[in-house]
Amino acid sequence: MKVLxxxxxxDKGNIPFVEKVLEDLKGKAVYRINDVFATELMKxxxxxxxxxxISNSDQLREFKPxxxxxxxxxxxxxxxxxxxxxxxxxxxxINLGRLGxxxxxxxxxxxxxxxxxxxxxxxxxQRSMLSLESNIPIFSEAxxxxxxxxxxxxxxxxxxxxxxxxxxxxxxxxxADGIIISTPTGSTGYNLSCGGPIIYPNSQNFVITxxxxxxxxxxxxxxxxxxxxxxxxxxxxxxxxxxxxxRYETVTSEHKLSxxxxxxxxxxxxxxxxxxxxxxxxxxxxxxxxxx
Length: 292
Prior knowledge:
CATH topology of the largest domain: Rossmann fold
Number of helices: 7
Number of domains: 2
Shape: globular
């Protein structure tokens, strides 16, 4: 088995967990480490030979990993998806962060997780993504998102107006601080904090959620993932902020944006003792009486 070990940051307290993963992989799998994480490891005096380092998508395609172990939080998995792109390498998220809806395998279960990975005792969830097109090119390296797309006001306290169309038909002009277009995966993120619904992972929907809308009758809207969502923005400012997951670009009222379902998915590894419903219950404390 070939494995990509992927990370972004490394707190000193998490070094033993990284060492545990690499030790468990020895003799069982051939592994490589992405360049950013390799640099972090070397800062902690860990030896990472040059031949083990993956620096770009072309090198990853040449390596052809069977799986990716993401070590960090949900943001690390989002970044891993921009490197993996259309390779469809399934990702196992080991949570070294905080909440961890995507990185749902806790660091205390590393031995069991690696054993299940090597023995292929897991299921793979297909997670749909958003694809962005613009009349003025932006996000040239990775114009897709696993979690969400957002369009926001910038440099002013004034609201913006976002004209929204579904398959070319006018839906609404949102007067708000911004708008979120979320995948089912991203529904437990920014969308949830702005009052949007949680969407089951394989529902094949997107959610349109306004951020602090002026009209209180405006509510989040669930649409089919086959829908093309078109957006135009205007406001008192000349510049606005546009994001795909944690990446951002500056746009203007000249930009005409179109969102569709991405032609490829991100694949997430779900271990035998962990399901989406388990994650929701545990992370959101559903059914837990904290009064006593």
